[in-house]
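Narrative of activities, Objective 1.

The group set out to show that a structural description can be obtained from nothing but a protein's sequence at a throughput compatible with the screening campaign. Below is one input-output pair from the validation batch, recorded exactly as produced.
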Amino acid sequence: MVILLLILILWCRHSTAAADWYATHLYPGISRILGGLAAPFGFSLTEIVIALLALTFIVRFIRIFKDPERRGKRIWRAVRVLLWAYVWFYAAWGINYYRSDIYARTGSVPMPYEEAEFHEFLEELAEQLNANWCPESELAAVDQKAFEKSLKDWYAALPEEDGLCHPRKWQHPKRPVFNRLYSAVGVLGFIGPCFDEMHINSEITPLERPFVHAHEYSHVLGVSGEAEANFWAFEATRASDIQAVRYSGWYMLLHYVWNNVHSLLGDEQFAEWRATLRPEILEDIVRTQNYWQERRSAGLARAQKRFYDFFLRSNRIADGTKNYSQVLRLVLTLSDLHGHEHGEEG
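Output recorded for this entry:
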């Protein structure tokens, strides 16, 4: 069984067509089975499985040195644990890294940089941020169950060619078991590939939560790229009837494109544009940065970023962790902000 799954993984790794077939034919069923098994549990099965696999590997590795006469067998057993972990990760979700990107799936071509369109986008960004800003009390008062239902309805309405799975009623975000560790390295949420579980940091601010929820849910539905997940999260939240959710979407888009905008405009023009944002938004930026800085461990955060950057690059995300900020090009190309056809229907 392991050998057959390994062959499937290697085939998909070298064939986009095979990976697309997996994403649209196999993954929906796998996700339904694994996610359904994990749904009754309020905690993360993925984290427990990974911890047990790691512990098993460590124990077997130690035994290699304690029993020289059976070293060959011990080494094979340790390798077998790693092989199972590798196969489980990729067969359960990881093959989605090798599928066609959103441009290919939607028949789109990345829009080249056009100054006029870019400045039009900046005007829209500032206008929507200013119009949708709301105090923290309103953000904290968002009905999470109602938001989740509307989010699933929005994803369910996307056209088939977008290549996302159909949402399931029993798919809900889980609180991570090792939550303090994720806060220390700056992780707001993640997908648990062993059982297709989405996790949201329990210390997340109300301002970030709707966007992160929509982002992580897109991963459960088969999205692998971080820029694409950000795009779907932005489109879903800005389409909401709830002002606080819309503000979360526009605010998090600003978070991811801030450096891009700064580098494209230069210091002087960027300062002029930033001055068009209402002061409360700039205060939210500072407040959020300080909030996570208090929980962050600089050393662990650097190590995690380097590891995740290497991991993404090794899985065909060429720009690594910088992929998060590539959402700007996706928005300019695929969003209907300026009359593009793709828009909120996909």
